[in-house]
Amino acid sequence: MASSAKGKSNSYYGYSAGLSTLYFSKKITAIFKLKYIDKYFNENDHIFDKRRQEKTSSAFLILNFNNLFNSKNIYATLLSGISNKFSNIAFYREEKLFAGFIVGYKF
């Protein structure tokens, strides 16, 4: 993985790895993803005068429940995820957590 951004301090090289697993049945569909990214920036940051390194790890889960209330048209989906970016420059560190719930009707 490489980037060639206009500013040299925003260009980087790095590595990424991921793992996904899927499960399907008549009632439930599940998707689970893990991802890891390691970035090494090419030049010192122009504000912090330090070469940035970032490590990001994330996990994501989707669960889809079909045939709710014995109706083939009603479904529910549960979404959740977390992402954590660590940087040797504190300004760039971030942590994200999200969740969602959807109820739908298929026409």
Walkthrough of the structure:
It is a single chain. By secondary structure, the chain is mainly beta. It has one domain (8-105). 0% of the residues lie in helices and 66% in strands. It is built from no helices and five strands. The protein has strands at residues 12-24, 28-44, 51-65, 74-87, 94-105. The radius of gyration is 20 Å and the shape is elongated. The termini are far apart.
What is the structure about, briefly put?
With 107 residues, the protein is mostly beta strands.
Core attributes:
single chain; 107 residues; mainly beta; 5-stranded antiparallel β-sheet; 5 strands; 0% helix; elongated
Largest beta sheet: strand ordering: 1-2-3-4-5
Measured by DSSP, the beta-strand proportion falls in over 45%
Distance between the termini: 42 Å
Order of helices and strands: EEEEE
Shape: elongated
Computed structural class: mainly beta
User: Unreliable runs, pLDDT <50, ≥5 residues?
Assistant: none
Tell me the radius of gyration.
20 Å
Number of domains: 1
Count of separate DSSP helical elements: 0
Helix content: under 10%
Instruction: Give the mean pLDDT.
Output: 92
Biggest sheet descriptor: 5 strands, antiparallel
Number of strands: 5
SSE blueprint and pairings:
Elements: E1 12-24, E2 28-44, E3 51-65, E4 74-87, E5 94-105
Antiparallel strand pairs: 1-2, 2-3, 3-4, 4-5
